[in-house]
Each structure stands twice: as structure tokens, then as C-alpha cells.
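Section 5.1 Outputs to date
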Amino acid sequence: MEKKITDFSGKWTMKSSENFEDLLKELGVNLFLRKIAAAAASSPAVEITQQGESLSIKTSTSVRTTHVSFTVGQSFNEATVDGRPCTSFPKWETDTKISCEQTLQKGDGPKTSWTRELTNDGELILTMTAGDVVCTRVYERE
């Protein structure tokens, strides 16, 4: 029997965010840039397209747009939330949750990772971790 793959596709609006500025602080982002990033990222537009286990995620803010494409179970190159190049390995943690460990390609810094989970209520929960700091962002479909 084939496993049903959770469908993350759609346009998503953020409804809450906790610890984003603390996450940036843990990553060593200076106060001035943290304030700009926190303001810009206060209402990101997220669009996810998905075919099977391949996802493409576009996140747009007033300052920048990021785009990442990956297939669950295959490593890929992306950047940490503060822009450092890393290699990421996404995997299914549960039937509805993808977890991703990030490894810096050079230099030192806190261990970083992210998860994306679809709840029974249809919300998308993004967690971003740097060291011991966890940022949680909750999105709803438009």
C-alpha cells in the first residue's frame, strides 16, 4: 500500500510568529539588521508548489524574495535564515511533518534546522532552530 503524501501546496499567510528576532540574535545578526529583518518578515507571502515529494517554496517579504526547491530524502544546497550557504537534508519526521538538518558549508555557527508541518486544522507550522532558540511561525491557506 502506497503512503499518502501530505500536500503542502498553496498560498499561505502568516498569522503568528514567536522568537524570530531571538533566532536572528542567536545567529549573530546585529541589532540594526535584526530590526529591519523582523519588520520585513512580519507578513511574508509564502507560495508552495508540490509534485509528490518535490517541493518548491517561494517566500516574499518587502525586502527580499527567497526560493528553495527540494525533494524529501535528497540533500540540497540552500542558505540559513541569515544567508550562510549550507547543505540541507529534508526527511519525513511523521506523515505530515518534514524536518531538515542544515550543515554549514564553511565556517562555524550554531546548529540550524527547520521543520514544516501541516496540522489537522489545515495550518502550516514552520519552526526554525538555531542553537537552543526555536522560532515558530504559523500560517493559514489563503
